[in-house]
Amino acid sequence: MNKDLTVGKPETVLWKFCMPLFGSIIFQQLYNIADSFVAGKFIGENALAAVGNSYEITLIFIAFAFGCNMGCSVIVSQLFGAKDYKGMKTAVYTACLFALFICLSLMTIGIFGCDQLLRMIRTPETVFADSKLYLDIYVWSLPFVFFYNIATGIFSALGDSKTPFYFLAVSSTTNIAMDIWFVKSFRMGVAGVAWATFLCQGVSCVLAMTVVWKRLGKIHTTEKAAIFNIHIFKKIVIIAVPSILQQSFISIGNIVIQGVINGFGPAVMAGYSASVKLNNLVITSFTTLGNGISNYTAQNLGARKYDRIRAGFKAGLKLVWSLSLPLCLLYFFAGNVLLRFFVDDLTGTAMSSGMLFLRILSPFYFIVSAKLVADGVLRGSGKMNQFMISTFTDLLLRVTLALTLSGTGLQSTGIWLAWPIGWTTATMISIFFYRKSVAVQAD
Q1: Distance CA 147, CA 102 (A)
Q2: Cα atoms in the Cβ-side hemisphere of radius 13 Å centred on 422
Q3: Euclidean distance between CA atoms 339 and 382, whole angstroms
Q4: Dihedral sign, CA of 38, 51, 334, 174?
Q5: Residues of 5-36 as b/e, b for ≥16 C-beta within 10 angstroms?
Q6: What does the DSSP 8-state code read for residue 225?
Q7: Phi and psi angles of residue 277, each rounded to the nearest 5 degrees, phi first
Q8: Of 263, 343, 257, 335, which Cα lies nearest the Cα of 51?
Q9: Which of 91, 212, 293, 404 has the fewest CB atoms nearer than 10 Å to its CB?
């Protein structure tokens, strides 16, 4: 059901809208967690390392899909808030054409360039074949990844956060079952993990896009909406390209960091692969809540209700901090239990590396979550330059410090320390930009 986010108590509206988004991203992350879980439990430590190694490259592809999602979602939100339904439909069609072009381009690069990417991150020969196999299959699922992201962006723009949750709840649990079935019953190894994800993503995409077209068909306009509009396209690009660059450079930075980690051997790789999935579950959840705040901000910006934007920022902080506390405690004190979900016989080095990573990062969830809320407001307000400055500061600090500190006596611990330093610095920048360029609109 479509939901107008410009009316009602801001805190209540935002919480009701964002909580299904939080549930959705939990299930979305289960796709990747399930792959690592099955690879580690039923194939072995090297398979876990291979899936984790490939994951850093798949994040580049996902970054482009995420950018298309945000470009579509923010502009459609603004038009929906302004009650410009004809323009809203044109924005949807234009975003789909944009996503198709980007998707086909990336598929071409992926089909012919995965070997080079794996070599660039110094993938050990022991896991190279499985890493390449996983990526080769994943590349063919990119149309599903892109158009599912477009569909969820449209749902969010229309104030509907429940429909994506239902799709993901079913598809993610199905993916876990199919992962186990393909690996245990058919003994397909890493290929079984990849094909299970491919099939579940495909079904989710088709169903989600079907619902989107039906939903749009029920929104009547006096004139037929154009399939493409250059003015709307430029607006989408202004939001999408910085979002793509943000996520892409973060992914590239993570690949550089993965290359440094690979130099410490398969045991550290396996520990990092398991722990970074747990960390990404949290960060991606906060990012998704930030995306929800972007939709909330964009709708209210379109309706010119500026006072609600500041109220939404405060409500967003309460939301992410209420989630940060239990997650921090869980990871800090029970991380070893969670890591064993991925593989039973983690070696001492793998377990200690994974635990240290979680214990260093988890206390800083309170800080990075505040950054992602501020980023959500900046993006929903179209303040993309400020958003990019904060993001790139975080990235450059993390990559530079990981490269530098890992070469000292700290070794892999130096890599883990780079995260909280980057997060803290970037959070101060994001909050400064929010207070300077967005909060003043409500005064």
Answers
A1: 11
A2: 23
A3: 39
A4: negative
A5: bbeeebeebbbebbbbbbbbbbbbbbbbbbbb
A6: P
A7: -65, -40
A8: 343
A9: 404
The Cα–Cα gap between 78 and 98 comes to 19
Q: How far is CA 372 from the centre of its chain?
A: 12
pLDDT tens, N- to C-terminus, the chain (443 residues): 567 788 888 888 888 888 887 777 677 666 666 777 777 777 776 777 777 778 778 878 888 998 898 889 889 988 988 889 999 999 999 999 999 999 999 999 888 888 888 888 778 888 888 888 888 998 999 999 999 989 988 998 888 888 888 887 888 788 888 888 888 878 787 888 889 888 988 988 999 999 999 998 888 888 889 999 999 999 999 888 888 887 777 777 777 888 888 888 888 888 888 888 889 888 888 888 888 898 899 888 888 888 898 889 999 999 999 999 999 999 999 988 888 876 565 567 888 888 999 999 999 999 999 999 999 999 888 888 888 898 889 888 988 998 899 888 788 888 999 999 999 999 999 999 998 877 555 55
